[in-house]
Amino acid sequence: MNLRSAARGFLAFLLSVPVLQGDGDWRVTYSSSNVCALRGSMDYLSCTYEYPENVQYRPTTVRGLWFTKVSNKLPVDLEHDTDYTGRVENSCGLVKCIESRCHGTCTLRIKDLRQSDSAVYKFRFTTNQPGGEYTGDPGVKLSVTDLQVKVSFHYPTVLTLAELECHSRCGLAGDPPYIWFRNGLYVGQGVNYRANILSGNSYLCAVEGYKHLRSPLVYAPKTPSVTVNPSGEIEEGSSVTLSCSSDANPAANYTWFKVITAYSSTELKQGPQLHFGSILSSDSGQYYCVVQTELRAKSESIYVTVKYGPKQTSVLSSPSGQIVEGSSVTLSCSSDANPAANYTWFKDNQPLLWEPSQPHTFPSVHPEDRGTYHCHAENKYGHLNSNSLFLDVQYAPKTPSLTMSPSGGIEEGSSVTLSCSSDANPAADYTWFKEHEVSVKESRQKYIITNITSELEGNYYCQAHNAIGLHDSPFLLIKVCVQCLKVVTSSWTTTVAVRTIVVFLATILLLVFLWMRRKRAARKACGQEGRPDTIEELLHVPVYENVSALTNRWAPAAQREPIEEQDGHHCAIIHTSHSENQEVTRWLAGSRVQSDQTDEGQGTDRDGRNLRVVSNVKSTPQSVNQ
To answer: Model pTM?
Structure first.
């Protein structure tokens, strides 16, 4: 097969079976009813014609032509049509007549096909017989088309990865070898070509060996640019617009995408702008636009960061569930916020001095860490409290404490109640034991013994236990006695007597101390005077205000003088001989003193002894009633 035959085989595709058109014994048979050919290629239309032989007009002459137009009801031969000048050639074979039937073939060759060559082509033959003309209807439909590059995008994760297919609208017969060009340079062979389209690139396909039979160019638009308005910091609730622009010819279509993962995106909308009337925190992310003509171009990504106050603030405990004393526990506070929030911790609504942005760890949790915790998240755009989390620290019972009622000695036949208590979480259960006995006495917090006997005395203890652990109490001694009440009464009486004696003695000592102190103070106030053989004694006379007043009372009225005041003290000095001291003292205590002198006078006692009285007492002047 020569090159022309091969080209003819794949540049034209017969779309129907041969068409037989006849009128009685006159007929035209076309090899196909529809032919599709590439622009710029060469194509062939062929037919077979038949007619009856008439021996009277031998030898028969035949003339055939191809036409697409009619002028004055006559067909216009393509070889004379100016639109086909130099591009068409009709060739017919010899006519053969067999058994009164004559037949022949004709082929029309059209080269450098044009889009305007698309038409219905008919064949007409004329013989030398009378009425020997015939046109074969309906003819052959020729469609002239370009090679086309069909673009498909089968990879949603890579939006610019395209599948290019070289094809014709009507298809071509056989399996023609196609070649591909990018920016005018050969890049591959085959019906399909896969390419990651870059901005500004152009692609076309052609028939190998016929580079002039090529598709139109397909262009990738230039890389679009993306802007955001307003620029700078974007706060939740504000209005934001993203704009995409590209210098594309022909005009491009725009599509907006948001990146979901590194390998996937979601399509948002079409159009050069993406508008957020009231932007949300969930709108934060990476956006880009894709511009598409025949091919696509992807913009650079733009990041939209929405600022907002804390949301969904929560407190978590790790581990969760049961927390036992001594274990490690971490409390963490989390919040959806941009920028990241600072945290303040609270226990039972009281602030804690913990790190503001870090989880807090109890390396060894204690019972006193038990409580209700929450955190407060805050940034410049708002604040929010978290949920409350109750940290329930469970621990084994602490050392139990015991009490007994009544306390002290227990009288035989009475009732006694033992009580046990222990700090534990969960609350403890209690079991009572007696020393040196293995049997359980009681399994409750209180142990009541009624009608106690001496056989029941001894050391008792309780055991506090819960799911975490157990702890035994110290011993509690129960002493049973027969006459505890009398002993207690006697002891109480003795105690009262001893206390009474102690109080009495203390009172006596206090009075003596006060008397001596008063005497010492009075001596300093009054001073001393008299002869060497005279004893001066300071006497306080409770019956009279002072001795001067007494002697003044004994004196005649004309000789009485006012009593002087000296330091606010009242005292009397009595001078007497040594032999008379004892008598004077006794007399003053039991008798009235009589004298006719004012300041210094003589007097006699009831036994006739002389007595000299000196008044040296200062007091507030006062009258003495006669």
So the answer is: 0.47
